[in-house]
Amino acid sequence: MSTVYILGDNLYLNITNRCTNRCVFCIRNFSNGVGGKKLWLEREPTSKEIIEELRNYFPLKKYREIVFCGFGEPLLRINVVKNISEFIKTYDPSINLRIDTNGHGNVFHQRNILLELEGLIDSISISLNAEDPEKYNRICRPVFKNIYEEILDFIKLANKSIKNVQVTIVDLPEVDKTLCEKRALELGVKFYIRRFIRSL
Ligand code: SF4
Question: Which of 21, 34, 63, 192 has the fewest CB atoms in 10 Å of its CB?
Answer without folding.
Answer: 192
